Amino acid sequence: MFSDNKKPRPMTEFGGQPNRIEKNTKIKGDITSEADFRIDGKLEGNVKTSGKVVIGKDGYINGKVECVNADIEGKFNGELNVSDLLSLKASATIEGNVSVSKLAVEPGATFNASCTMGKGAFTSTSSSSTASTSSTASKLQSTKTNEPAKVS
Q1: CA distance 123 to 147
Q2: Is 46 exposed, middle or buried (0-12, 13-18, 19+ CB in 10 A)?
Q3: What's the pLDDT tens digit per position in 72-92?
Q4: How far apart are the first and last CA of the chain?
Q5: Could you state, in order of their start, the residue ranges of all structural domains in the chain?
Q6: Which residues lie across from 95 on neighbouring strands?
Q7: What is the DSSP letter of 144?
Q8: What pLDDT, on the 0 to 100 scale, is given for residue 128?
Q9: Interior CA angle at 76 toward 15 and 81, to 5°?
């Protein structure tokens, strides 16, 4: 009846209070945090967290982001490494390189990025498979012409 497991746990056990960069705020530099991060302003730099990164509708990041989950409504340009789920809302604009385990894209989102996806996206072998995929794609593009297919 009076056990310790009913006591409220401090937020620090779960990574602390979420952090927020408000609209009309501009930051240049790198951010490291154990807690979730919401960005409604502008950030030029890197974000590394073991939590979730949310880029609000007016938010913008130019740099590198490493996180577990991400929800993006605003704009991102750079390198994005999400170890679990990346969710792109209809207003999102993504450019750069993306490495993700799972991807959800709403209709209307702009996704102009090279993407490595799957459970192996974060291993050292993924870069070699990405390179071979890129070279295969360039070979396919170089041999592609507007001629009808030939039957052999």
Answers
A1: 40
A2: middle
A3: 999 999 999 999 999 999 999
A4: 79
A5: 32-111
A6: 77, 112
A7: -
A8: 37
A9: 50
